[in-house]
Amino acid sequence: MDPHTHLPWAGFREGEFNERLKGRTYAQIAAAGGGIVKTVAATRAASREELAANVRARLDAMLLSGTTFCEAKTGYGLDLDTETKQLAAIFEGADRHPVGVVATAMPAHEFPPERRGSKELRDRYVNECIHEMLPALAAGGARYADVFCEEGVFDLDESRRILEAGKKLGLTPRVHADELTPLGGAQLAAEVGAASADHLLYVTPEGIDALARAGVVATLLPGTSFFLRMNRYAPARTLIENGVAVALGTDCNPGSSYTESMVAVAFFACLGMGMTVEESLTAMTLNAAASLGEAERRGSLEVGKVADVVLIEGPSVEHLVYHFGVNPVTHVVAGGRLAVSGRVRC
Fold first, then answer.
1. Which residues of 202-224 are buried (b: 16+ CB within 10 A; e: fewer)?
2. CATH 3.20.20.140 fits 14-303, yes or no
């Protein structure tokens, strides 16, 4: 189960990857016209068919590394036409694919270039999210609403307004929380009854307590920390010890974590965040299912649940992480049907 992806995008940002290796920061690249807005421009220019083909190719890659169910967000459109185009591409790309998909509406991923420069423009975009995009995305089949609650993006009040508006439309909240600063996104996630608070690199003790009391799943994305060379990971051990259910996700996107492999994420979770193999396995199965409201149907091998089964090459489950840099998945059964055999898609 992969509970955090941004699958329907166009274009790549490999040049930015190399620029960071040469010393430029993510913020400097974004200020020069890179970052999310570069992907927004490419995604706006792409057709629905192109985006759907991209979604399907990424689902194929996920399947081969053992993922049988995932979440996919909009958020590279930032206008009504492209956000709805992304949502349609998610469902078109996933149609009859072995990997099941649930969609999240995320027009509040960033402020588009045409809505920057003044508080009036910011307010206008927040209102567009609330009154135009979220209703259209809810009507189009999205199950969740997400917001990037962070300094320089959507503040606590803006995030709360957007998430509460989504709830009225039947969209369960999710929150990009405390990724870059201890803004209080975890507390907001608890306040609005979010299914998941994601990233959490800078979550505070108060935020951890709020998540535990509210029963919010902490979805951690260690591949992003590694990919951006942040030298910091979410405090998985502290979250677990304080009774917060921890899930893992890829954050698959072109700018900060370009991978479809939950196997790779497990490696970073163990080596970067100090999780055990057993904890990482639970985090990307049953806890990930809980993050997506699917724990009654998926995430464990039990009578009455969907028959999603992954076989790996190796004498023990530890080989999932221990034999790193390779794909150990040999067979995948998705929904009771053999979907991968001998590392080849059926």
1. bbeeebbbbbbebebbbbbbbbb
2. yes
